[in-house]
Amino acid sequence: MTEPERKRRGRPPKVVSMPAEQAAPAPAPAPAPAPARGRTKKAQVNALSWEEAIERVMRSTGGAMHYTNIAKEISARGFKSVANPAASVASAFTRARSDPNSIFIPIGNGLYALKESLEPVAEQQADDIVESENETGALKALGMFWQRSSVIWNGKPKLLGRQDEGAANVDFSDQVGVYLLHDRDRVIYIGRAADTLFARLKAHTTDRLGGRWDRFSWFGLRAVSEDGQLVDAPVSWTHSVVIETMEALLIESLEPPLNRKRGDNFSGAEYLQVPDPSIEQRNMKQAFDAFLKSQSE
């Protein structure tokens, strides 16, 4: 588990503030052409096809890239805004396999490159590479160290997350799988969510564990479709799948320092928590009410 991967999770990183006069100004974005009348911002974001967006990222970075990193770059640059960009990139590469004129080529372990940047590779060899890296693990999505205080537990169930900045939000309240309750970074309870994840977590806000946890992690069996819906993904429960799933779950939950990679064939995408929008509205109202009260005293 690398340090950047730890920082992007809910473990509070050490924040070093920079005075305003020392902060480096953000680079000015390149001027964009004027949009056509009536064209929405969303239409502009999604104007490129996935193949075009992938090509732009790969040409600008150079060399081989993992498909998940390509997805992150696409979201960060505003080329696309979808719930599961990694799945969309993977689908584009799958389509490329059947296109003899495709400019992309797999080089193993989820890495892809532009054909023009590599020595010629036999077609059968490329097929063998793709077949050998098919994702078989049962874990399809996960969230690490999500904050209890960022969820509204009364009312309509809602557990929001997104893959990266720029990606669309996904509601994981109906996810199924296993979960961990944390007291800061210490695991105090492990449970299973056979019904819905939200229902199990909500029950722990009022039971004997109610005052003992402030964060939670979860590992889901339901995949996220390209349009952001949770779907039941077929899994062949062979010995290898069970072993790979157990290994991946342990590595992700324990974060052993000497494991440099996730479990083999780990197909789960990590989602970062998105606080319920109603919380900010509630906090603003409370602050305004407090201000009015202070003025009347």
In a nutshell, what does this entry contain?
This protein is α+β, with helices and mostly antiparallel strands.
Structure explained in plain terms:
33% of the residues lie in helices and 18% in strands. The chain is α+β, with helices and mostly antiparallel strands and 297 residues long. It folds into 2 domains: 43-134, Arc Repressor Mutant, subunit A (Orthogonal Bundle), CATH 1.10.10; 141-280, no CATH class. The strands form 4 sheets. A 5-stranded mixed β-sheet has the order 8-7-9-4-12, sandwiched between helices. Helix 3 (50-61) packs across helix 4 (67-76) and helix 4 crosses helix 5. The N and C termini lie far apart (54 Å).
The order of strands across the largest sheet is: 8-7-9-4-12
Distance between the termini: 54 Å
**What is the share of helical residues?**
25-40%
- Multimerization state: single chain
Q: How much of the residues is beta strand, in percent?
A: 15-25%
Number of helices: 9
The helix/strand order is HHHEHHEEHEEEEEHEEEHEEH
Poorly predicted ranges: 14-24, 32-41, 121-134
> Cα-atom Rg, whole angstroms?
22 Å
